[in-house]
Q: What sequence folds into this?
């Protein structure tokens, strides 16, 4: 997954929003637990923000150059689908630079 190392080249900030206890955020919590350390070690200067709020639906937000943002709802997605959604957001960042 070479794209994981290119997050900081294509994104200015990555935000993951989730609920600490709701079943709808369970997969997102697991994804963060399994992948945060790897993503951060590959992109040490990229702000990766984990925002927990009671009752919020899980979401993934990417901020690009000039304040452009894109978001994806994560409710009902598997860990693999969340990873694919993140990869797609990285590809958006590549296309915005072209």
A:
């Amino acid at each position: 997954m070479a794209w994981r190392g290119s997050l900081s080249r294509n994104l200015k900030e990555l935000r993951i929003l989730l609920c600490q206890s709701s079943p709808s955020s369970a997969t997102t919590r697991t994804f963060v637990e399994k992948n945060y350390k790897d993503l951060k070690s590959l992109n040490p200067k990229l702000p990766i923000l984990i925002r927990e709020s009671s009752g919020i639906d899980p979401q993934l937000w990417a901020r690009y150059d000039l304040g452009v943002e894109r978001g994806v709802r994560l409710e009902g997605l598997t860990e693999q689908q969340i990873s694919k959604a993140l990869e797609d957001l990285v590809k958006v960042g590549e296309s915005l630079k072209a």
Summary: The CA atoms of residues 4 and 39 lie 6 Å apart. The two ends are 22 Å apart (CA to CA). The mean pLDDT is 94. The first strand starts at residue 13 and ends at 18.
